C-alpha cells in the first residue's frame, strides 16, 4: 500500500478523539479499494500514536506502514468483534512494542547531561537513534476537528512531553497515551493489551507518577498562539535574520536554552546563547527562516546566507520571551520530511508566523 498525503487523512487524526465505537464493524466484506481507503483514513492518527511511542517521525511512519501491511494481509480474517480503528491500534501497539525491545530510549540533549559552556568542543555528534526528532504537524495532527481536542493533541507532541514519555516502560507508555491523550477507557485499553482493567489502572498510576517526578503532565493546559506570541515570533524572525544581538537579547528569556542534535552539547542562559551565536555559531549570520509546522510549536526551516539548508528550528515561548531554541541539523532527511526545498527559494508570501501553534 502506498502512503497517502498527510493533507488527505482523517479528521480524527492525532487529536484527543473519543475511544473506538462499534459502527465500523463488518469492513471485512468491503471491496479491496474500499478497504484500502478505510485503512488509510486512520494513517494520521496512527502516526501520531506511533510518534509518541517511538520519539521519531521516521520510525513512526515505518511502524504505521507495517501496521497497514499487516492489516491489509489479515483483513479477510478480521471478524469485526471490535471496531476497525481499535483493531488497527492493537496492531500498531504490537509493532511499536516490538521495535522498542532492546532499544535505548530516545532523549533530548538536556536529558543526557548538564549544560555546556560556550568553550566546550562541539564534538562529533551521536547516532540518530539517540535523539527525539521533530515531526511535521500535518503528519500527526488532524487538519480539522474540535479546537479543544486539537489543542490537547498539540500539547502531547511537544518535544519535552515526547521525551518524558520515553522514560516510561513501553507498555506504561502505551497505556498513558491511550488513556490520557486519546481518551480510551480502561476496559478498552485492557482489551487491546490483553490485560486486566486493574493492571491498566496500575500502569497508568505508575506512568503518571513518573511524569510528575520529571515535571511533566499528560493534562498540561494547552497554550494557543495568541496575538502577543505572533508578534514575538515576527520580531524573532526579524532579529535572527538581521543577526541583531541587541534585539535577540530583548526576546530571549534569561534562562533560555539552545540545543543542536545530533550534538550532545547544549546551552542554558541568554548570555551563553548570544556568545555562541557570535562565536562558534557565527555561520548563522545572514540566515533565512521559512515557517513550518512542527510538534505543535512555532518552527522554521533555517537556511544559511548562501541558501544551503542548516536546521529545523523548533521554538518554545512563554511569558513574552523565547525560552528554547531547538535546532535539528539532519537536514538531508528533515528538509524533505517538512516539504522544504534543498536550496533557499526566496521569502514566503504573506504571514511569516509559523502555522504550527495554531489558534
Automatic annotation (TrEMBL):
<dbReference type="InterPro" id="IPR036388">
    <property type="entry name" value="WH-like_DNA-bd_sf"/>
</dbReference>
<dbReference type="InterPro" id="IPR014305">
    <property type="entry name" value="RNA_pol_sigma-G_actinobac"/>
</dbReference>
<dbReference type="InterPro" id="IPR013325">
    <property type="entry name" value="RNA_pol_sigma_r2"/>
</dbReference>
<dbReference type="InterPro" id="IPR013249">
    <property type="entry name" value="RNA_pol_sigma70_r4_t2"/>
</dbReference>
<dbReference type="InterPro" id="IPR032710">
    <property type="entry name" value="NTF2-like_dom_sf"/>
</dbReference>
<keyword id="KW-0805">Transcription regulation</keyword>
<dbReference type="InterPro" id="IPR052704">
    <property type="entry name" value="ECF_Sigma-70_Domain"/>
</dbReference>
<protein>
    <submittedName>
        <fullName>Sigma-70 family RNA polymerase sigma factor</fullName>
    </submittedName>
</protein>
<feature type="domain" description="RNA polymerase sigma factor 70 region 4 type 2">
    <location>
        <begin position="159"/>
        <end position="211"/>
    </location>
</feature>
<comment type="subunit">
    <text>Interacts transiently with the RNA polymerase catalytic core formed by RpoA, RpoB, RpoC and RpoZ (2 alpha, 1 beta, 1 beta' and 1 omega subunit) to form the RNA polymerase holoenzyme that can initiate transcription.</text>
</comment>
<feature type="domain" description="SnoaL-like">
    <location>
        <begin position="234"/>
        <end position="322"/>
    </location>
</feature>
<dbReference type="InterPro" id="IPR013324">
    <property type="entry name" value="RNA_pol_sigma_r3/r4-like"/>
</dbReference>
<dbReference type="InterPro" id="IPR037401">
    <property type="entry name" value="SnoaL-like"/>
</dbReference>
<dbReference type="Pfam" id="PF04542">
    <property type="entry name" value="Sigma70_r2"/>
</dbReference>
<feature type="compositionally biased region" description="Low complexity">
    <location>
        <begin position="1"/>
        <end position="19"/>
    </location>
</feature>
<keyword id="KW-0804">Transcription</keyword>
<dbReference type="Pfam" id="PF12680">
    <property type="entry name" value="SnoaL_2"/>
</dbReference>
<feature type="domain" description="RNA polymerase sigma-70 region 2">
    <location>
        <begin position="40"/>
        <end position="105"/>
    </location>
</feature>
<dbReference type="Pfam" id="PF08281">
    <property type="entry name" value="Sigma70_r4_2"/>
</dbReference>
<feature type="region of interest" description="Disordered">
    <location>
        <begin position="1"/>
        <end position="35"/>
    </location>
</feature>
<keyword id="KW-0731">Sigma factor</keyword>
<comment type="similarity">
    <text>Belongs to the sigma-70 factor family. ECF subfamily.</text>
</comment>
<dbReference type="InterPro" id="IPR014284">
    <property type="entry name" value="RNA_pol_sigma-70_dom"/>
</dbReference>
<dbReference type="InterPro" id="IPR007627">
    <property type="entry name" value="RNA_pol_sigma70_r2"/>
</dbReference>
